[in-house]
Amino acid sequence: MIVWSEKLYLGKKVKRNSKKIIKKIEKRKMTREIFCITFASNPENLFDIMNASEFKYPYYESKEIRIVGLGKGKEEAQDLVKDMLEEIYQNTGDFKVREYFI
Fold this sequence. Notes:
This protein has four helices and four strands; from the N terminus they run βααβββαα.
């Protein structure tokens, strides 16, 4: 199950078509160029960056995936993670990502 963060970070290349992209991801359609920033599957890490097309696999239907950011291309997603971490640290003085978004 895909859960969208109330504060969804969007890369510059995604902003214009974000509603279409979100619908495609929810319908598990191919979106090869779109990368999702999610809470890390390993609690020792902060985020995972995943190609949105991975959500078409049955494995993800039974998992709760909280998407907190979208970028077009892996590089834009990585830049977005950097910006997110800087904002989280400036606002909280820590890197408690899950607490910041929930």
